[in-house]
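Example complex used in Figure S2.
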Amino acid sequence: MATTYDIAMKQADLKEDGSAPLVAVENVHKSFGNHMVLNGINLSLDRGETLAVLGRSGTGKSVLLRLIIGLVAPDSGLVRIHGQNIAGMALDRLGEIRKKMGFLFQHAALYDSLTVAGNVSFPLEHHRKEMSRSERDDRVKQLLAEVGLEGDLEKMPSNISGGMQKRVGLARALALDPEILLLDEPTAGLDPISSGEIDDLILRLQRERQMASIVVTHDLHSARTIADRLALLDQGRVVIEGKFEDLQQSDIGFVKKFLKQS
Amino acid sequence: MSDRGLSVGSGVNQTLPGQRSEPLLAVAGSFARAFDALFEWFGSLGIFSWKVLRASVTPPYEWRELVRQLDEVGSKSFPLVALAGAAVGVVISLEARYSLSRFGAKSMFPSTLVYSVIQVMGPVITGLVVSGRVGAGIGAELASMKVSEQIDAIEASAINPYRYLAATRILACILMLPLLTIAADACGLLTGWFAQALVEPLSFHQFIQSGFKGATFSAFLPQTFKTAVYGLIIGLVACFQGMRTSGGAEGVGRAATNSVVLSSLFLILADVVLVKFILVVFP
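Predicted assembly (545 residues):
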């Protein structure tokens, strides 16, 4: 079982083969006003790996994801993607890094003036200009088929259910074939069957595409199903990081309480 | 006696230090906060403007979105602007005929109408109408996108929202305001002439010839094209208010209201400066 100190030490060094982790969050602090959200957090993610970030509401899980994609800047510390620190990076340069990342928002954040197909097509229209219209349309159909929505291309986001919106958001996040997928509460607010379907979908996509993912969730069952590693946050810090069995064997009071209540 | 009362009251109001100093401190505190908010607003607007400027001059250019916004700002504002211009033409015609008759200067009617509409009323009315329609629309649309994380989603998709959302809307406002002003002027002159022709026979040809007699391009062009500055103000303020909003539905409403109020206010203030500037540069 790794302690916070071990994790910090691990992230400070490069791996044995000299390569940097795909994502490295190093001693990041973030406050909003007087409220400290992240208090010296350390995390890393390697290629093809899935990390689930767990914790109570308001412990900074979503803020962590927003830091990783550069939507929020840290007060101090480093956020490295492919070894490059993105904190304070110019928007257009950051854009080049973001093209390798997909982000599923907690409430899907679909463009409400565009159809389902339009939402998925949006990143392709901007970043795959070499694609012809028919190629783009085919790609959109393929992506929506992957998430089981091939028959809903022309529907508006307001006319589909929450679960379907999450699927469209996922298809949009996958549009540019990202190396890193960031999922913010992919199963929150969904019924158990829809949650299970989303989990299966994420597992299948991981298997087929070999992408690295960070999944923020408070759903322990979902985290256990889809993640290789779990990190439990409390008061802006990683309390424990490891496999589910490591969490089960932990003597830390908060970990025991979290597992018991979940 | 409190420390605060003592420190402020001593030397100024030694008889009633506590009672007088606290309301004074409260007023001073309110002023300080208001100034703080004002400077914060202008500072943020400056940073926002710089980001938009930098995004708008570097590729990739968002031509498709710009064309969509030109349609949104231009074509869809045209009926309202034309109607406002027409109403202004009629009002000026009625007022001018009455006033000029009293001074025996009825022959001045065509030029009075032409100069009043094109130099004064047309640009300001167009600016205010567009501020109301487009400013509120942009403010509410972007604020709604902001609170529903759609702007974050655009950014997460590696698309610069300052380029895609703000620069296109601001440029559309800058380009469309002069054209809409020309449309408002044309409608105003047409209805102004028509209102006069109903009372006294006056052919449109005569009206135009007499109205524009001796006029030069410099008498009208700067007044028409100054509305590009109005467009900049409307687009910039509305985009800024929309993209910085927070607080759900209430925030969306506040952004829409502030967009209209602030852009109208700055537009009127800019008009004062621009009129003086044009008088100096084009005497």
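Chain A is about 40% helix and 25% strand. The CA atoms of residues 67 and 73 of chain A lie 6 Å apart.
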